[in-house]
């Protein structure tokens, strides 16, 4: 009888719980049993492993083989367990010493000829191995993304035979390539070529400075999508910790990672026909959706009322908590979803509210596709009006485009917030506002009177105060003043439009 235990890692959201692959060879009729809450794709490893071992020059044991993936309460899926199973069979058969399997883990799918194929969700695995201070052998084709976890001990391998040579000491595998983070170059995009819309630009600056959710309302062709595209150019780069969180999500999704864009924030722009599942994620083995892929970046929703009501309402909880929990019969997963929402919409289904093609009630019905609780979670609502004059934009982006200077102001405001409370103003809790805003009694009474007059909910009341705090940070003011509050109260364009139509 032969016995071996090999370490590997399963996939569970953006975490990777450790799994012990236990191999037992016993006398009896030849058989291959695989247990431990394994789905069909894992059980198919029996044929892949058998062929890979034979084609790599090893003798497949004519024994009763039992493979247990422990613990049994963690769902296992995919081909990532092929390599540890094959290594375990080699160890149980006496090809490899048990000592060589100490402090090392394996992950990878095997081809029938013994080659090791890449797997999805490798970054969480590499992070888990690094946290446990054990080496990891993984597919060579995954080396670019594995290199993002720079502190891990990594051994990329391209075939089963090279793994055997490494474990027996005949020929050691080369360590994975080091990763050098690239700081994103200066963006070529500016906004001096965007004609007018100074208020919208101001709202964009405030939203970027405090990580506030933003909604732009205006007729077609006024520059809403163009303004939204400039948002990424305003935001500061991610830290390596933030970038690694984002990379882990994209790795689980199976999206290709680019090292040169490692620190660059992402903008996701799903089409308005996207379902609730497409936004939040799901499937039999829950995978991340658009809101998680926009983590630490921007989720841009153009033509907001055209999205299904259900699709929009699933955004409410992630906007508050910063994550999304998916539960399915086969298992559950939690994905981070700390995104900044930027949305754009027309004020009327015909495009322009002033074209007199619809009654006020018809226009109101269109706007009511957006639920009140969702609108309450949008800090800034700004009108993007049609321009009175026709003009041409600036020719090309000048080196002194004002966007670049504005970005420095945004970064300075973000730095103030990080030093003061460790997070952007948009993420502040209601209980923190009094100490951070430093309102005097007269200004507080002004805000309370305005909130009562405008019939604001408590959530909007607090979000207005957060926006005012960001405006004060942009002006380098220690305390929030009445002028900051007044400006913040002015960014409720859609609320005002709905009230106007309701009284018509």
Could you name the CATH class of the largest domain? Answer: Alpha Beta
Q: Please, what is the CATH homologous superfamily of the largest domain? A: P-loop containing nucleotide triphosphate hydrolases
Distance between the termini: 86 Å
Tell me what portion of residues adopts beta-strand conformation: 15-25%
State the secondary-structure class: alpha/beta
In helices, the fraction of residues equals 25-40%
CATH architecture label of the largest domain: 3-Layer(aba) Sandwich
Gyration radius over CA: 28 Å
Multimeric state of these chains?
single chain
DSSP summary, beta strand count: 18
Low-confidence stretches: none
Strand order of the largest sheet: 11-14-17-10-18
Number of domain units: 2
Shape: elongated
Mean pLDDT level: 89
Do you know the CATH topology of the largest domain? Rossmann fold
Number of discrete helical segments: 22
Q: Characterize the main sheet.
A: 5 strands, parallel
């Amino acid at each position: 009888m032969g016995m071996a235990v090999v370490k590997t890692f399963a996939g569970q959201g953006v975490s990777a719980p450790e799994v012990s692959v236990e191999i037992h060879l016993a006398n009896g009729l030849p058989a291959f049993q695989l247990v431990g809450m394994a789905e069909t794709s894992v059980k198919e490893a029996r044929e892949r492993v058998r062929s890979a071992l034979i084609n790599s020059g090893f003798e497949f044991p004519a024994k009763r083989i039992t493979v247990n993936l422990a613990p049994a309460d963690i769902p296992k899926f995919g081909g990532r367990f092929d390599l540890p199973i094959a290594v375990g069979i080699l160890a149980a058969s006496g090809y490899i010493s048990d000592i060589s399997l100490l402090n090392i883990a394996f992950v990878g799918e095997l081809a029938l000829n013994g080659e090791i194929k890449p797997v999805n969700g490798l970054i969480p695995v590499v992070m888990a191995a690094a946290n446990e201070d054990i080496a990891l052998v993984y597919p060579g084709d995954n080396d670019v993304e594995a290199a993002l976890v720079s502190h891990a001990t990594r051994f990329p391998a391209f075939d089963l035979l090279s793994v055997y040579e490494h474990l027996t000491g005949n020929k050691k595998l080369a360590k994975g390539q080091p990763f050098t983070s690239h700081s994103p170059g200066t963006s070529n995009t500016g906004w001096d070529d965007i004609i007018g819309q100074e208020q919208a630009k101001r709202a964009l600056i405030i939203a970027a400075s405090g990580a506030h959710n933003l909604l732009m309302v205006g007729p077609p062709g006024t520059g809403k999508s163009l303004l939204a595209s400039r948002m990424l150019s305003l935001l500061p780069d991610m830290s390596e910790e933030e970038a690694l969180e984002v990379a882990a999500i994209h790795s689980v999704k199976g999206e290709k990672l680019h090292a040169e864009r490692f620190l660059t924030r992402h903008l996701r722009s799903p089409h308005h026909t996207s379902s609730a599942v497409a936004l939040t994620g799901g499937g039999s083995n829950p995978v991340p959706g658009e809101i998680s892929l926009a983590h630490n970046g921007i989720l841009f929703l153009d033509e907001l009322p055209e999205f299904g009501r259900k699709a929009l309402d699933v955004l409410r909880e992630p906007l508050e908590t910063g994550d999304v929990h998916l539960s399915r019969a086969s298992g559950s997963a939690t994905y981070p979803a700390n995104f900044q929402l930027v949305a754009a919409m027309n004020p009327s289904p015909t495009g322009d509210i002033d074209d007199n093609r619809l009654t006020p009630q018809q226009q109101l019905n269109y706007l009511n596709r957006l639920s009140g609780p969702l609108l309450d979670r949008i800090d800034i609502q700004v009108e993007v009006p049609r321009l009175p004059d026709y003009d041409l934009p600036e020719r090309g982006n000048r080196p002194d485009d004002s966007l670049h200077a504005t970005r420095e102001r945004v970064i300075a405001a973000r730095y103030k917030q990080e030093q003061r409370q460790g997070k952007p103003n948009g993420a502040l809790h209601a209980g923190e506002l009094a100490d951070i805003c430093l309102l005097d009694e007269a200004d507080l009474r002004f805000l309370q009177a305005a909130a009562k007059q405008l019939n604001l909910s408590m959530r909007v009341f607090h979000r207005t105060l957060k926006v005012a705090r960001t405006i004060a940070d942009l002006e380098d003011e220690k305390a929030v003043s009445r002028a900051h509050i007044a400006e913040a109260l002015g960014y409720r364009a859609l609320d005002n439009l709905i009230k106007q139509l309701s009284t018509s």
